[in-house]
Amino acid sequence: MDARLNYFADPAAGKVLKHFMSAGRALKESPLPAATQELVALRVSQINGCAVCIDMHTKEATAAGESPVRLNLVAAWREATVFTEAERAALRLAEEGTRVADAADGVGDDTWARAAEHHDEGQLAALVILVSFMNTANRLNIIARQPAGDYVPGQFH
């Protein structure tokens, strides 16, 4: 399968995406734990059905030492016992932040309160930005039908 668009072939789109990708790299330096970042990126991508991002974040998490059991259970995190309470709170916020059209109130107060119990303000800011960033990245890839499977860990660093 070939992508519908090569965003970097167009100078204007390439310039925008260069800045967008640098924002993603800056998130890696945020105070939100790296494992949480990868789990959240993976879960948002699963919800949206973004194969290229699922490929990327599964491989990045594996390269960083994440266990196959945890990666395989991200889609069913509510029933899994392998996640910390902080990770569970982040995954819950990520789901509600991704499925905003499914709820009139978006992210609920209880979800926010649980996330705030486990994350300081800097981590919460990074989490919200990461969820928003991943939703945008997912849409860019899905609309252009970016193919998945060939990602190599560290490819965009």
From TrEMBL:
InterPro entries assigned:
AhpD-like, AhpD_core, CMD-like
Ranges where the Carboxymuconolactone decarboxylase-like domain occurs = 17-96
A Pfam family for this UniProt protein?
CMD
Q: PANTHER family, per this entry?
A: 4-CARBOXYMUCONOLACTONE DECARBOXYLASE FAMILY PROTEIN (AFU_ORTHOLOGUE AFUA_6G11590), BLL7811 PROTEIN
Q: What is this protein called?
A: Carboxymuconolactone decarboxylase family protein
